[in-house]
Amino acid sequence: MSIQSLNEVETSNPLRADLVVVGGGACGLTLARAMSGQGRRIIVLESGGLDQDAKHEALNVVRMDGWSPEEAAARDRYHRTLTHHWAGDRQQYGVRCRGLGGATQAWAGKSAPLDQIDFEERDWVPFSGWPMSETEVAPFLKQASHLLNLGPAFYDARLWMRLRHEPPAQSPEGDALRTMFWQFARSRRQVTDIMRFGPDFRANMPGGVQVLTEATVTSLHSNAEGSLCTGLSARSLAGKEVSVEAPICVLASGAIENARLLLMSDLGNRHDTVGRFLMDHPTTTVARAAPDQVTDLASRFGLFGLRDQGQSHVYMYGLALTDQVQRAESLLNGAVFVTEERAPDDPFAALRRLLRGQSKARLSDMGSVLRSPVRLARGAGARMLERGYLPERVSRGIADTALRLFPNTLARDHRFGRLPVKLSGVRFEATTEHPPDPGNRVTLSQELDPLGLPVPHVTWSPGDAARSNLLQIGRKLCESFEQAGLPPLIPEPWVREGQPRAATVIDLGHSLGTTRMADDPARGVVDRNCAVHGVTGLYAVGGSVFPTSGHANPTLMMIALTLRLADHLRGRV
């Protein structure tokens, strides 16, 4: 149907729909498309505009105490390049994006499924266990992979054969660590970009779907008993208000916002579970490559291109804890990936400083630029591809060939703004499963946002179990390199000294939990079908329903759960 700002819509009477979706991110837009057709009228409410902007970023404030100065600085380095407007003093937890497409405006596209062990109830992980099995979600994972434009679903050592690539002769894999691959979701529209749900949705609008932007949901409507959801109210920053009446309402606005809306509306919280069990993927650096090993390890743990059905796909090689060692040593799940570090004399950084008048060493920066004509030419070529100066057929062919033959180069260029930067180091980052803890939670503060709504307050900490797990991952990584006869890594001081509390651990921007899934209403907010316990017609979907986090980037699983919800709702709407 259409995409309109709430400010442009006639709202004197309530709008009516068969299904209303709160949130225009990956899950909300996926659900709207999956439910479209058969005469259904669907309304999607997106708090931001078509893209990120400063005025809506003011609604993303999250308050949290507890970061050390080192952790606050690390968060700033890690997250500030992801969005145009993120600031650590405003988003003191997480990475939130308003605007059509939600967090896919900022994500790296990194995708992997959960492991079978993540679904299990484990006696060493309190509150673990999903009310569904890996088998139940498998068909929807396949659909989600196609939607994300991913390649063949090989995330372990089997991929080497598919790549026609010999596994590394000296390998750190063994009883403790196994081969792990991630994939990158790739846009179908912009050949050199990651999948962005907003532009893809706008380019192919499904029938019967109306998207209202600049429409922040302020409350959910219900009967007096709070047992039936009948609709919602929304407001724009300009003061325009609308009511939407619908028999089915789905919250798909992220772990923080889903919880905040339920708390503001006093719905689904009979057992004081809303907002609790907030999880992320605690992350830190555990080791670094020796200076003379940077190039070799960047290549070894880099990216690999695979051609499949006429398209190239990119896989990232890393390591993950084996099920065997998790069970034997009561460990959480976890993985290791490699991050390349940008050199101080990178020519593009130098050129940027010179053009902006920010250079503090003009002669040095000019020398860096003049010594790198080939690198600068590559950057110019990347800009041509990105901005559509070449015919689509030509640019797609170039990008596919580059992805297949030079995945490391293209991925590195994309990570640093599609510019072929100069590297100075390689660090090994570990990410761990975050055990569910009811003390990690979202509550409502006394501070009000520009719409007069309570600003969310987060209580979150990695906890001793996650910190200990990161230490074990770091130790096993270094040990496995030595056992394999590989050049030794340089462990971080806290790993070498066995002091996990000294590690600089941050959130990865993967906010999970807060409306967790459980068959027992006393242990969760939604049931196995994502229906809010005790409130007919109200559902929640996305990372907020995860009972446990695993270590995998969550979007693939979030989309799978959304498609599973659509399958459930089709017989009810």
UniProtKB/TrEMBL annotation:
Residues 202-282 form the Glucose-methanol-choline oxidoreductase N-terminal domain. Keywords: FAD, Flavoprotein, Oxidoreductase. Residues 436-561 form the Glucose-methanol-choline oxidoreductase C-terminal domain. Belongs to the GMC oxidoreductase family. This is Fructose dehydrogenase large subunit. Its cofactor is FAD. InterPro entries: FAD/NAD-bd_sf (IPR036188), GMC_OxRdtase_N (IPR000172), GMC_OxRtase_C (IPR007867), P2Ox-like (IPR051473). It is an enzyme of class 1 (oxidoreductase). Its EC number is 1.1.99.11. The lineage of its organism: Bacteria, Pseudomonadati, Pseudomonadota, Alphaproteobacteria, Rhodobacterales. GO terms for molecular function: flavin adenine dinucleotide binding; oxidoreductase activity, acting on CH-OH group of donors.
